[in-house]
Amino acid sequence: MEQAELIWHNGEFVPWGDAKVHVLSHGLHYGTGVFEGIRCYETERGPAIFRHREHLERLGKSAELYYFELPHSTEELREATHELIRRNGLRSCYIRPLAFRGYGEMGLYAQSAPIETIIAVWPWGAYLGEESKKRGIRTKVSSWRTISGSSLIPHAKASGQYLNSILAKTESANAGYDEAILLDDHGCVSEGSGENIFVIRDGILCTPGHTSSILDGITRASVIQIARDLGYRVEERSIARSELYLADEAFLTGTAAELVPVRSVDDHELGEPGEITRVVQAKFEDALYGRAEEYLEWLDPIEVPAEADEPSKVSS
Ligand SMILES: Cc1ncc(COP(=O)(O)O)c(C=O)c1O
Fold first, then answer.
1. Which pTM does this prediction carry?
2. What gap in Å lies between CA 200 and CA 209, rounded to an integer?
3. Active-site residue set
4. End-to-end distance of the chain based on CA atoms, in angstroms?
5. CA–CA gap between residue 157 and residue 148 (Å, rounded)
6. Closest C-alpha to ligand 1, atom 4
7. Does residue 194 have its Cβ closer than 6 Å to ligand 1?
């Protein structure tokens, strides 16, 4: 991965290589962490973070769902992120806030293990590759079912839960596919290993609803609004596996991947990205880069001092 100079760790800005934790940190052993994946874009109005508040609010909700008390307020985290991006001299980057149980107590009811908080930022291109956004990706339905609300909390973005995504992603990658699509407990379509999914049939965009063990994706919500504003019908409903094969178009959405067309599912060809995917994708990218007036409120601009108003220099 590309590195930046500084990481924010429990309120301090520390050199990248010095941001360390104890090997007996609780989160390392049991996955007791909650995190976010956020992006800052170099927009036409300067660097700006896409839907920053919504991401930080989701971090707070994930923490609450796992009985964590975050030591920092949303506003403190927001300001720390702005300052970190400024101090690292970045204009666009991926942003990873993480709160986890640290060192101090072992066992499963470790209420006295302190909550540590970090924010890291670094340059990271499109997760599934820049080309994937143009040409689409090949996907495979995973043999692993997505975590169910009866054993974990799909609505929380929690570290340990990602072992499920890692199993699915590894299986699909080892079989030569770009991404995995997971089904839920009932055999209906849930989501990708790190993205929500949309299927388009007869001009209607369909996406699994909240009872399908999905993460309540912020990109998903943005794309639903954009599609509706463009005049398309969007339905949140259960999607059968076969509807993936019969779809006219399909795409995945997520902060890391952005909006990625699906070219095939289990070797059933959907073909080149279709018209609705293209239109929604173009508007979504306009929103990310500050070119869509109607979505400017989704951007949290970072004030960059005039003397630092230069492209970043990043060591690797
Ligand atoms: C499992 C899972 N589903 C969906 C998403 C998409 O969420 P968002 O659009 O908020 O990044 C992500 C990414 O965070 C994810 O990890």
1. 0.95
2. 15
3. 157
4. 7
5. 14
6. 195
7. yes
**Closest residue by CA, ligand 1 atom 5:** 195
- pLDDT, one tens digit per residue, over 60-114 is 999 999 999 999 999 999 999 999 999 999 999 999 999 999 999 999 999 999 9
Question: From residue 192, how far is each of 146, 181, 207, 213, 234 by CA, in Å?
Answer: 9, 4, 12, 11, 19
> Are 288 and 300 contacting, i.e. CB atoms less than 8 angstroms apart?
no
Tens-digit pLDDT profile for residues 180-208: 999 999 999 999 999 999 999 999 999 99
Cα–Cα distance measured from residue 253 to residue 164, given in angstroms and rounded to the nearest whole number = 18
The pair of structure tokens assigned to 47 is: 């660097």
Q: Kindly report the backbone phi and psi dihedral angles of residue 259, in degrees, each rounded to the nearest multiple of 5, phi listed first.
A: -110, 115
Helix/strand/coil for 63 = helix
Interacting residues of 306 by C-beta distance below 8 A, sequence separation 6+: none
The β-bridge relationship of strands 196-201 and 204-207 is antiparallel
Q: Are 153 and 214 in contact (CB under 8 A)?
A: no
Amino acid identity at 42: E
Nearest 5 degrees, angle CA 126-CA 273-CA 49? Answer: 30
